[in-house]
Amino acid sequence: MTYIKRSVDNYERLVANLPSVFCQKDSKWEYIDDRFKSHYGSTFEIPTSEYTTRNNISGTLAVVCDKYVLIDKVQFPEYSEDNSLENYLVMNLGEPVDYVSFVDILTTTFHNLTIDVVGNYSSTATIYNTLDDVLNYLAIHTPQYLIFNGVEGSLLSGLSFDDCIKKLNQINSICIDNSINALLLFTPNYDIMNIDKSKYQELVCTYFSNLDIFDLGNWFIHHLSLDRLDRSSFDSQVAKWCDKHYGYINTDSYNIVVYNVIKRYVLEKFFLLTRTSFFISFVTLNIDNSTYCSTVKYYDNTPTAKVFGRKYTGKDNTKGLSTELDEHDTIIHPGDVQVHFISKYGTDRRWNIFSNEGEIIEFGIHTSYDETRYMAQQLQCNCSEEFQKGRESAGVKINNLMPLRKYCTGAVSYEMDSFPPPPFPGTGCPWITISEHNKSDYVDSTGRYCRRYVYYTKDDYSYTITVKLHTNSGLPDLWQTVSVGMMSTQSTENYPFPLYACGGTQALKQDHYQYHPITGGNLTYLQGNSYDLDMDNICLCNSNPLHSTKFNGSESSTFKFLAPEGIWYPIFVHSQSVHGILGNPRMGGPPSDYASPLGEPSATISGVCTIYPNTNDSRYTTYIDGLHRAELEPYCKVPYKYGTKFENLTIANESSVTHNSKIIVGTIPNLYRCWDDDLPCGEVVIEGVRYLSIPNGWEHRMWHYPWHYGIYNDEWQIDTVRDLFEDICLPKRYKIFNDRLLIKLGDVKVDS
Q1: What pTM, to 2 d.p., does this model score?
Q2: What are the residue boundaries of the structural domains of the chain, listed by start?
Q3: In the predicted model, is pLDDT for residue 20 greater than 80?
Q4: What CA–CA distance (Å, rounded) separates 620 from 612?
């Protein structure tokens, strides 16, 4: 198990630095996509088996290349914040670490294959491989397989384009005459950008009958264009952009993603090797008042609108995507009529379902990977069902989002039916969030936003990420935890991926939008949920993995497991709804204001999948004094003696959901429940082993903040409600969360 503690300024930097955390020496995790600031996400491959050993291939494989194909060590990108530029991350390369290349894998996979590596693969090499080097090798050797580059080195040494083609034809003829299976890799580097790019592209497109060709330049273009960059050709601007921002190309070598692209092509396309893997993805986004609209705006014919917009039935009864708002109204309201779409937090036709601004990280896990797909589109992703339903009428209730108000003006004026908005991409995944409000509250002594403390744990098949927000101003520490990976259970041929994802937040709150109808009349309202990025959101959909809650009509959950039949099932431990829309009465008239107070959460829900130990009503269980305390020194250097066993988080399948059998599916690794709210939050040592002790959101959080104290609405001030009830109830230790989530930080015992 790997355990790392760091601090970050923002979530972009957190996700950008994950490769250096997850892909360390001896780790089998591979970093294969780095578009973390888009809906594609930053993706890692986690193999659960080795490549299938094949003994039917023998002879010699010749690898005649340079450091742009192989390298002895690789450097992971590390991002830091440039304070002189707003929201700008500067990429630097970390310390070189050993890299497992395709040669290393082929050596262990093909026992009868001799691999002859020719060239300088040191990261410090300054001489590139040339086509003459390949021809010189073939003049003496006749391998059964050949992997080579050298076009770029030849051009940089002064060889003309025509002469390059001649030499490639020579290599092709030799391979045909000697039945050599050959792979030519075009590996454009930073220096090659100074040559005639059109000629280079013409050379790349030249046909050679016996050469398998992989054009890395085309991958660059494809990869970047998918990232919403308007790049029509592989030119110097692309190279500079790569170098400055993502570090795809630099003066020394490629970054880790590019090397893994080459490796995957050689192994899977050239040698047809397969292995069993699953994938995890991270999407980080800055949320402002335009983010939701720019993602699902129906009236723009953009790729994101096509993917994330809701489907509609057109005037000719054909089905399509809602790329035009007017498609909903032109038939019913022809002529001089203006249709308006209003949301509580947006403007006309520029709606917004987020009640505040901030940052989010979405945590996805899926069983296959396609570079052309957004994370939500990946096969068997934990948010794929929400993505599919969100585009259909069936998805209206996924998050029970507050409807958009529709009304028309012009030739006629009246209120129309409300319009249900689609969920934000990534719904169904655990989120870690922070709002601008949190940032302004949690500041350091200089008045700057406090840094976020991040705890990482990782083993071969799972990880946890915990974020803590701390200030010395007296506000409680705020915590959010996400755990994703493979359950501790026996996998079988028909159940190769016992996957799970849990924790974080749905980032929802109960809400209502009140307004006077366009034609006049009494105040009325629309109700549902909106997105709330506050880490101190009192709704129980913002909970750690111990307390997954079915919230106010939402059908989605942040705690899921992948069942043997390939379906992600949600897990709910509690349920919470709205007490009802309440009107503020006034003398002689209708309500002047409305409120939507939260109802008290229920105990364990019957008829759904759940987790042990929360299979019974333990909401108001008092803490168990099972820890024999000594006088504590700072940082818990005095060890705890624990009197009762820790409780594993074990998933229980409900019989009505699958197979008509109630079974134990698996156990979440390295996560435990502990009954002791006197156990300090943070790092603790228990019986000589280090754990991370985490409350449900914040220490001494109440189960319910009642509505009947007469505090109304916006409309209710949630901070006021929370502070009032905590002042009343905490001295009595009444109706607060008494349990702790414990995360094991390593298998090695530590000195106490």
Answers
A1: 0.88
A2: 50-275, 290-351+404-421
A3: yes
A4: 17
